[in-house]
Backbone:
């Protein structure tokens, strides 16, 4: 099968990108970040004659605060994501329009999350700003060897869906109606973004099956959320998994399996030997992940039972 360069793929899929862009624009809902923030709770900090943040001012649990901070810092790194997407898609025609539109929609997420957290004094704004500086300075890494386009499209499909789930579960965890409404609105955006990328990736599977399934397998086997470089990410990720914001079971059953099923990855018959090998690696990874997810759930149940027993004693 003839190898296609990223430029070839962009040219071939230009009509698909345009159709998906038009579909997205028809479905996307306009909304204003300021409509999701309880401004009447706001007050000055010390620099403006008010009172600086103290921990008792927050109404959120420690887990909810960790989830909100993780989500916001991930959204904050938008300039890095924009650069990578612009490098991958280019800025011509529908590709460039999508890059701009996606960036503008994603920017709302960071705006509304920060406004909410600062106005409600849910988290320490100084620590939040320090973490933002650190995370944005680190940026993100480019995809590994091979087609940057194929790996990027596969990655963002899974990542957008994972982010949607994290936002929705964080909203429920906050146990606060304004936060839940806000995070539900953000999650709706993320879902539409995922659909755009998922359709693109489906088109790459039809265009260049072997290279696409190789890219998908590589992304799944090495998947990391984009917030990996933010301060305390690993500690917070463990905490959020423990409390069901985003864990291995959700990653497997709500992200990986549904997307792979939509692409008919395990039913296709158009792979040659290299594609079949990549698909087999993917299958074995899913089998192993099922075992890991079940083990994590068992460990979590035992840990929660111990905590309940200590609380009752």
Residues:
């Amino acid at each position: 099968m003839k190898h296609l360069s990223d430029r070839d793929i962009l040219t071939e899929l230009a009509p698909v990108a345009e159709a998906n862009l038009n579909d997205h624009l028809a479905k996307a809902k306009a909304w204003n970040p300021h409509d999701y923030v309880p401004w009447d709770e706001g007050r000055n900090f010390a620099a403006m004659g008010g009172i600086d943040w103290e921990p008792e001012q927050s109404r959120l649990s420690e887990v909810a605060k960790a989830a909100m901070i993780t989500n916001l810092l991930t959204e904050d790194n938008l300039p890095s994501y924009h650069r990578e997407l612009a490098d991958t898609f280019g800025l011509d025609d529908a590709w460039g329009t999508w890059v701009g539109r996606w960036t503008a929609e994603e920017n709302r997420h960071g705006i509304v999350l920060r406004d909410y957290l600062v106005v409600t004094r849910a988290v320490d704004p100084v620590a939040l700003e320090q973490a933002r500086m650190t995370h944005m300075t680190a940026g993100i890494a480019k995809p590994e060897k091979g087609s940057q386009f194929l790996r990027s499209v596969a990655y963002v499909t899974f990542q957008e869906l994972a982010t949607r789930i994290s936002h929705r579960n964080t909203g429920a965890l906050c146990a606060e109606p304004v936060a839940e409404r806000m995070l539900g609105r953000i999650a709706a955006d993320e879902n539409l973004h995922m659909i755009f990328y998922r359709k693109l990736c489906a088109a790459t599977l039809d265009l260049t099956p072997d290279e696409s399934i190789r890219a998908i397998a590589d992304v799944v086997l090495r998947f990391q959320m984009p917030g990996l470089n933010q301060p305390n990410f690993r500690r917070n990720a463990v905490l959020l998994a423990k409390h069901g914001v985003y864990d291995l079971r959700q990653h497997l059953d709500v992200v990986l399996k549904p997307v792979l099923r939509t692409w008919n990855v395990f039913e296709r018959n158009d792979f040659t030997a290299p594609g079949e090998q990549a698909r087999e690696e993917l299958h074995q990874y899913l089998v192993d992940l099922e075992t890991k997810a079940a083990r994590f759930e068992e460990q979590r149940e035992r840990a929660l039972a111990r905590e309940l027993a200590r609380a009752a004693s």
Remarks:
- The CA atoms of residues 152 and 164 lie 18 Å apart.
- The longest helix spans residues 273-312.
- The chain has a mean pLDDT of 93.
- DSSP finds twelve helices and no strands in the chain.
